[in-house]
Specification:
By secondary structure, this protein is mainly β. It is built from three helices and 27 strands. The protein has a five-stranded mixed beta sheet, with no helix packed on it. A four-stranded antiparallel beta sheet has the order 1-2-5-4. The chain is elongated.
């Protein structure tokens, strides 16, 4: 539908020497040299030393991984911690000075970045910790993250600035098997104009579908944010970054009652009934909730492609074909039958009256013109006992939210 050097203060092993020098950026720099790091509220201050006294050594020690001079560091490999005291200030930034957001743990023992670091980027780290007496230890580091040698393409079914129906499910397919599913799912987020919460569900190792708990509200504006450039999708394989905006249009929900041979279409609150023919007993239509995947126009349909086909063979150019499933369920025009509203004679699809080549004013012509990708089609009372598999097309609405 992108050389790491770590310099650790001399006090890293035994605690930093506080007040050793009034200025200087060396590895043994004291509190004055790091005063800019302690400007935040709550930053510990080193204990003062009287003239001629021995400077106090902090019991705290700051550790930074990866080690000094490291290169090709994984974006999620940064570890900053403190022993014998608590971290008070941590600053991680790239060469442009842009800081990496992160959080110091409540107990002061570690710092965690809010997201993975960028690939192919040099970083500098400065950190402070203070012991129980307020004596400060410092540590500095610099390193460079790896440059990916392999990429996994993530394609979806969304076009920029397109408009979709209220049942739209965003389906993302990857070109390689995804091993780090949790990290990948976190790297794809949805920004919605009305606060709608969207959640993802994996179907196999290469497909991740997203939907809200209920159908989208008409008019919702959505932006899909892909932030996979620095996410390891599979060992040594990374993704890319992009944004995709789209809008939810008017609501249209069509309910097919296979037993009554009728379809009720509710569009923006207006209801209409249409005579249909659904799947025959030998080839019954799936029950369940389906979503319009594509409007395909005239489609060649052949009995030779239908597993378990019974009855007379056929090879037809079918007009006004609207795809509902990967396996070949359609709502389409039918010009060869007179069973609308009376009997179910199709091979699993939902047929509406049409003419050969498709007519604009026919039942199917009108329905086709008023439909869009993302519209909902619900089939009930088919003699087929099974409900459509949620992975067949955009049919994830058949999976309860608690299992999504």
């Amino acid at each position: 539908m992108r050389s790491i050097r770590t310099v650790v203060a001399a006090g890293l092993v035994g605690g930093a020497m506080a007040l050793t020098a009034a200025c200087g950026g060396g590895a043994g720099g004291g509190s004055a040299a790091k005063a800019d790091l302690g400007a935040g509220a709550g930053a510990a201050k080193p204990a003062a030393a009287s003239a001629g006294s021995t400077p106090k050594v902090s019991k705290a020690a700051v550790s930074i991984e990866p080690k000094a001079g490291s290169v090709d560091v994984a974006p999620n490999a940064l570890r900053i911690g403190a022993t014998g005291g608590k971290l008070t200030t941590v600053k991680v930034s790239d060469r442009t000075g842009t800081e990496v957001p992160g959080t110091i743990a409540a107990d002061g023992s570690s710092w965690t970045p809010s997201a993975a670091l960028a690939v192919g980027t040099a970083y500098q780290v400065s950190a402070m910790a203070a012991d129980a007496d307020g004596v400060v230890a410092t540590a500095d580091s610099s390193f460079t993250t790896l440059t990916p040698t392999a990429l996994a393409k993530a394609s979806d079914n969304v076009d920029d600035n397109a408009t979709y129906g209220v049942g739209m499910i965003v389906s993302v397919n990857f070109s390689k098997d995804v091993k780090n599913r949790d990290e990948v799912a976190k790297g794809i987020t949805f920004e919605t104009s009305n606060g709608t919460v969207v959640k993802g569900h994996w179907f196999g190792d290469r497909r991740l579908d997203f939907r809200p708990e209920q159908y989208w509200a008409p008019g919702t504006k959505v932006v899909v944010h892909y932030r996979l450039k620095s996410v390891e999708i599979a060992p040594g394989v990374y993704g890319g970054d992009r944004d995709e905006p789209f809008t939810i249009g008017r609501s249209q929900i069509s309910t097919v009652d296979a037993a009554e041979h009728r379809m009720t279409v509710v569009t923006a609150g207006r209801s209409s009934d249409i005579d249909i023919t659904a799947g025959s007993p030998e080839h019954a239509t799936w029950n369940g909730t389906m979503v319009v995947m594509a409007k395909e126009g005239v489609v060649r349909m052949q009995s030779s492609t239908l597993p378990g086909m019974t009855g007379a063979p056929y090879d037809l150019q079918v007009p006004h074909s609207i795809r509902l499933t990967d396996s070949g369920t359609y709502v389409h025009g039918n010009y060869w039958s007179n069973s609308f509203g009376e009997d179910n004679v199709s091979h699993g699809c939902v047929g509406l009256k049409d003419v050969k080549g498709g007519g604009d004013s026919t039942s199917m012509g009108t329905f086709y013109a008023g439909s869009m990708v993302g519209d909902v089609v619900v089939v009930k009372n088919s003699i087929k006992k099974e409900t459509l598999d949620p992975s067949n097309g955009l049919s994830g609405w058949n999976l309860p939210w608690a299992s999504w």
